[in-house]
Amino acid sequence: xVATPIGNLEDxxxxxxxxxxxxxxxxxxDTRGSIKLLNHFNIHTPMTSYHEYxxxxxAKTLVEAVLGGKNVACITDAGTPGISDPGExxxxxxxxxxxxxxxxxxxxxxxxALVCSGQDTRRFCFEAFLPADKKERDAILEELKxxxxxxxLYEAPHRLARTLDxxxxxxxxxxxxxxxxxxxxxxxxxxxTIEDAAGWYQEHEPRxxxxxxxAGRDRGELIRQQQEEIRExxxxxxxxxxxxxxxxxxxxxxKAVAKDRGMTKREVYRQLLQ
Length: 274
Fold this sequence. Notes:
Helix content is 48%, strand content 15%. By secondary structure, it is α/β, with parallel strands linked by helices. The chain has three domains: 9-96, Tetrapyrrole methylase, N-terminal domain (Cobalt-precorrin-4 Transmethylase, domain 1, 3-Layer(aba) Sandwich); 109-217, Tetrapyrrole methylase, C-terminal domain (Methyltransferase, Cobalt-precorrin-4 Transmethylase, Domain 2), CATH 3.30.950; 220-273, no CATH class. It has a five-stranded mixed sheet with strand order 4-5-8-6-7. It has a three-stranded parallel sheet with strand order 2-1-3, with helices on both faces. Strand 6 and strand 7 (188-193) form a beta hairpin. The longest helix is centred in the middle third of the chain and has 15 residues, at 157-171. The radius of gyration is 25 Å and the shape is elongated.
């Protein structure tokens, strides 16, 4: 699995050039684009197309080739194969057949955007492109609403404004870094908020490929909201009864109730007395 540049050809590694030169066959997501890369580095290895629409049938052919003694290198249109890419099917099928899969690391748009975003990098989730299907897209956005990790999304220019509107409606206004044309001549990092970005791209036509790095929801705020919802939904007496019915003694039940409702144990005790 060979990573290739996402824009700047200087990001090609020496190892990637050697592996692609030594392979018996290169499985490329976009042969027309990849031939330019191979020509630039004087690589003459034969190519075959491997993309979203033939990923299962062609993966079987490629696995048979490897089992027959050939070395196959897989590359994506740009970046790391297998990330938001049909390469994952080939990897699973190869491993199921006892074939060794070797990563040749390099550029990855999601990671490059994250580390230069100014957002929290310790914990993050990657969602790639949101689904085109409305029902599936709405379900994923609903899941992301309470996500506390930094969220990384890909988006095409013609869908960017609509996606920002959907994010504003679902996630609310929170910090976002709009990363555009990574490693290319017009590379840009715009630190803003979701609502401001939505307004900007309603008035300015988006150009290039985009990665959105969105701040996760504040964990403390989420916990406070959940505690408030519990206080409104269940009376203190009912809440205590739920834990007592589970077999907890009165002391432990009060401790659990206090934690659920964002109260001290003393407050729970005093209100129960009243």
